[in-house]
């Protein structure tokens, strides 16, 4: 498996589509039948799938937590996050540890993917804006569409996909902790 460069991490800001010759590196991976990419600056490491501790009463896209060198790291099933259907664990399933910015804090979150492909350089000129319709995932999850070898790779806005605030709200709803309107 390719090991990402352990250089300083970015914040996962949205890609600026179609701008000049600014070439960036992306880790590509598959989830279901789709190919996705995340900026390599957000990737800390890639680990084998396993040793997950399930947490009761969580939404189906939160597979559990792992102990990563003494730190508790939540693992998100991207297939379930995008489609609501839990992904089956396969031979090449792995966990990509990414770093996201939450307020003034950097958090490590694991994303479960079907298979890691490779690290690619995609020039800014080969990145199209996110489509407003027709994608199999929410439009706000897409930072852009990278053209690689005549095919499109969905470049994820990892900050939106792994929005801790949104996942907290979804978890509370899943646990039935949302407030009922008064007088109802």
UniProtKB/TrEMBL annotation:
<dbReference type="GO" id="GO:0006935">
    <property type="term" value="P:chemotaxis"/>
</dbReference>
<protein>
    <submittedName>
        <fullName>Purine-binding chemotaxis protein CheW</fullName>
    </submittedName>
</protein>
<dbReference type="InterPro" id="IPR002545">
    <property type="entry name" value="CheW-lke_dom"/>
</dbReference>
<feature type="domain" description="CheW-like">
    <location>
        <begin position="23"/>
        <end position="167"/>
    </location>
</feature>
<dbReference type="Pfam" id="PF01584">
    <property type="entry name" value="CheW"/>
</dbReference>
<dbReference type="GO" id="GO:0005829">
    <property type="term" value="C:cytosol"/>
</dbReference>
<dbReference type="InterPro" id="IPR036061">
    <property type="entry name" value="CheW-like_dom_sf"/>
</dbReference>
<dbReference type="GO" id="GO:0007165">
    <property type="term" value="P:signal transduction"/>
</dbReference>
<dbReference type="InterPro" id="IPR039315">
    <property type="entry name" value="CheW"/>
</dbReference>
<feature type="region of interest" description="Disordered">
    <location>
        <begin position="1"/>
        <end position="21"/>
    </location>
</feature>
């Amino acid at each position: 498996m390719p090991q990402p460069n352990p250089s300083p991490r970015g914040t996962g800001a949205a890609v600026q589509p179609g701008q000049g010759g600014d070439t960036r590196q992306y880790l590509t991976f598959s989830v279901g039948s789709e190919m996705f990419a995340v900026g390599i600056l957000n990737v800390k490491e890639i680990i084998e799938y396993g040793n997950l501790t399930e947490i009761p009463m969580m939404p189906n896209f939160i597979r559990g937590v792992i102990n990563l060198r003494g730190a508790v790291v939540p693992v998100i099933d991207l297939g379930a996050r995008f489609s609501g259907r839990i992904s089956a664990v396969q031979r090449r399933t792995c966990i990509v540890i990414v770093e996201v910015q939450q307020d003034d804090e950097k958090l490590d979150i694991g994303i479960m993917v079907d298979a890691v492909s490779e690290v690619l350089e995609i020039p800014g000129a080969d990145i199209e804006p996110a489509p407003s319709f027709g994608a199999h995932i929410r439009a706000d999850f897409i930072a852009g569409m990278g053209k690689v070898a005549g095919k499109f790779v969905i470049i994820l806005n990892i900050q939106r996909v792994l929005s801790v605030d949104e996942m907290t709200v979804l978890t509370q709803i899943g646990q039935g902790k949302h407030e009922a309107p008064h007088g109802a």
